[in-house]
Design brief:
alpha/beta; 3-stranded mixed sheet; 9 strands; about 15% strand
Length: about 280
């Protein structure tokens, strides 16, 4: 039943890809990667020599960013679209990498998925029926912690990007995925934002590290006011292309190179950029 759930998610996802088996070349189990110190060092080195351009903090941030994006899409997409939560952890997640340490695909090898009693497949092999939405959200939060936590610790041991930033990056992705999927599907953006926030609340009770939560921002567009997500954490991508140690150059590039939703931007600047993006994509 987990395979059906993942396949549905993959069909509904814009660019992130998800598989139901980790067969063929290029796949590595997350548990195997985490147990291999040399492979972890090589992962950081690959980012360091490519997009990160010699910035060790950005190399760590990029590893976290790539995995957090896929993981959030996997968990949030299943939870909000299907009202299901997969059983996740390093032993049940596999990764397939592309060029420059890019994460091309994520696979889930678990057979277990939690569902509610009104799910049409409740009681089928591979399903675990839970009593409430809160219980379903708890399974989703447990999966996020079990999968992301060991990776965060492994990256922190190798790159000067703090755990607060790592968990904040995951939180930003959870909120962004919820809102983007709702908007793409012409759904209720405010309801999706609230659902994402509930999941972040469950996550916060399970993680000792605190982070700055993403927040709701309303911008004026040609279609009227629209709710968007402002990140709580900067992903440091503005440093790409700047020589390490050139702090002046990095500071000058924050405004033009930072993400639209970056907390380093002013509220007004974000609003203008968000509005332009939403108007152009309508």
């Amino acid at each position: 039943m987990a395979a059906i759930t993942v396949a549905r998610l993959d069909r509904s996802s814009g660019w992130r890809r998800f598989a139901v088996a980790a067969d063929g070349p290029g796949w590595v189990g997350l548990d195997r990667r985490l147990a291999d110190g040399r492979a972890l060092d090589a992962w950081v080195a690959s980012e360091l020599g490519a997009t990160a351009g010699g910035h060790r903090d950005l190399a760590g941030a990029l590893i976290v960013y790539r995995l957090a994006g896929h993981l959030a899409e996997l968990v949030v997409g299943c939870l909000l679209d299907q009202r299901r939560a997969l059983s996740l952890g390093p032993a049940t997640v596999a990764l397939r990498f592309g060029d420059a340490a890019r994460l091309d695909e994520m696979a889930v090898t678990s057979d277990s998925v939690s569902v509610l009693a009104d799910d049409p497949d409740a009681g089928a092999p591979g399903t675990d029926v839970v009593p409430t939405d809160d219980a379903l959200r708890a399974v989703a939060a447990d999966g996020l912690v079990a999968t992301f936590g060991p990776l965060a610790d492994a990256v922190r041991a190798r790159a000067p990007f703090g755990l607060r930033g790592m968990w904040g990056t995951l939180a930003d992705h959870v909120a962004e995925v919820a809102v983007r999927r709702a908007r793409d599907q012409r759904g209720d953006v405010d309801a999706a934002m609230a659902a994402g926030d509930h999941l972040l609340g469950a996550l916060a009770t399970r993680v000792s590290t605190s982070w700055t939560r993403p927040r709701r921002q309303v911008v004026d567009t040609a279609r009227g006011p629209q709710a968007v997500v402002t990140k709580g954490t900067c992903c440091l991508i503005y440093k790409a292309g700047v020589p390490p140690g050139d702090r002046g150059a990095a500071a000058r590039l924050i405004a033009p190179a930072a993400c639209t939703s970056c907390p380093l931007r002013s509220e007004a600047d974000r609003a203008r950029r968000f509005a332009a993006h939403l108007d152009s994509s309508h």
